[in-house]
Amino acid sequence: MKLGVAETLEQASKIKKDQERIAWLQHHNSVALETVLRGAFDPGIVWQLPEGDPPYKPNVLVDQQNVLYNECRKLYLFVEGGNPNLKQKRRESLFIALLETLDPMDAKLLLSVKSKKLPYKNITPELINKAFPGILTSNV
Question: Which of 5, 13, 29, 51 holds its CA 20 to 30 A away from the CA of 125?
Answer without folding.
Answer: 51
